[in-house]
Amino acid sequence: MTEILMPKATAVWLVDNTSLTFDQIADFCGLHPLEVKGIADGEVARDIRGADPIANGQLSREELDQAEKNASYRMKAQKSRHAELLKPVKKGPRYTPVSRRQDRPDAIAWFLRNHPEVADSQIARLLGTTKATIDSVRNRSHWNAANIKPVDPVTLGLVAQLELDEVVRKAADKKAKEDAKRGITGDGPTLRPASETGVYEDAETVDDEAHEEVRETREDAASVFSSFSDEGDED
Question: Which of 12, 62, 106, 228 could link 151 by a cystine bridge, Cβ 3.0 to 4.6 Å?
């Protein structure tokens, strides 16, 4: 059955401009007969402006005339060119030139390393790859795993910067909402104090060694100076 464009608006027009029964209108528009009765009573779709199915190419005058003469007749909708134009176009899988397909594993590795919050389905859609390929890169079971290295997909020419930014932003927003539901804050681990990392102890050790070296140098210089002084006294 052909779907009617703006079914309630079409039903409004048929109620106002024809002698069709509620059942005939309901069948044509894909509505329940009680909805059509509600339209006729002014209880449903009171603010909706009627849409003429003949004018928009979904119903022929011959069909309407035949239905008005026979209450048991069910009208057949025509395929309207307007409906085709308004129908959402589903995007097919992204086409990647053959010369660049070998770069997709590198782009996948970049996502896995830098943006683990991006879902595999998003990566697959953006790069024109499959979840199986993504899993093989993640598990290092890909046939070319030894040569795969993370590379920005924009640099590889696989996606535009705006597309990449949009995917990353949506993934980050989704993760933030999920973390908020679980009570996880956005504060990450802080740096440990230097006293806990041993930095102070190392610095003190270095300072002690430096001081000892300076002291020995001074003693050596004093010894040399003393020997020169003794030689001068003998002369």
Answer: 106
